Amino acid sequence: MVECRKIKGLYHVHGDATDDKNLIAAGIERATGITICLPSDNDNLYITMTARMLNPTARIISRMTNSQLEPKLLKAGATSVVSPNAIGALRMASEMIRPAAVAFLDNMLRSERGELRIHQIVVNDNSALAGKSIMKSGLRDQFNLLLLGVRRKDGEFEFRPPSSFVLEAGMTLIVMGDIDNINRAREAL
Questions:
Q1: Is the pLDDT of residue 94 over 90?
Q2: pTM beyond 0.85
Q3: Which residue range forms the structural domain that includes residue 170?
Q4: How many domains does the chain have?
């Protein structure tokens, strides 16, 4: 019998992730999300399909090396697909073209002394933000947050929207600011 164990505060199952028993022992049926990152694209495809069958609502992020596999992973149930090779190539190009900007973002995201972060805030149906323009939202004045962009309900992004842009339920705001202020805004809005 396969069982989930806790070592140093982390739960794990020792075994092959392509074996359904191990996924079930790990709690896949109750999981909010799963990250699938084996070195084999075929294994990642199989686990993605199995995870989706066992949990229709989980967020599934799957790794791929062959970009031609992306449509199959999405059809198999992946919510999102990540290519470490493509990300690495973009990172290397960014390092070459804009090294100071890359260093700034790295330091901002990994710094233990600073609390500046980029996060998302979802505009729910009962949110105080729904129906308000950005100017009247209080994001800047009340919470000292910089609005970088908005993801519309259709998935399209609005980068640097004007202050007259009206926020609607179902939108996701991409903000930058102090983590405490982001959390306060999430609670209040």
A1: yes
A2: no
A3: 114-188
A4: 2
Angstrom distance (rounded) from CA 63 to CA 30: 21
On average, the pLDDT of the chain sits at 92
Residues in the chain: 189
Q: Which of 47, 68, 87 is the last residue of a domain?
A: 87
Domain boundary among 72, 87, 102: 87
* Alpha-carbon distance values, 147 to 67, 72, 84 (Å): 32, 35, 28
| H or E element that contains 55 | none
Beta sheet of 116-122, edge-to-edge order: 116-122, 172-178, 146-151, 157-159
pLDDT of residue 172 exceeding 90, the answer is yes
Q: How far apart are CA 91 and CA 73, in angstroms?
A: 24
Cα separation, 35 vs 27, whole angstroms? 13
Q: Region 52-75: what's the mean pLDDT?
A: 97
Residue 111 Cα to chain centre, angstroms:
20
One domain, residues 82 and 118: no
Residue 97 within a domain: no
Q: Is residue 104 part of a domain?
A: no
Residue 96 structure tokens = 């070459």
Decide if pLDDT at 121 tops 80: yes
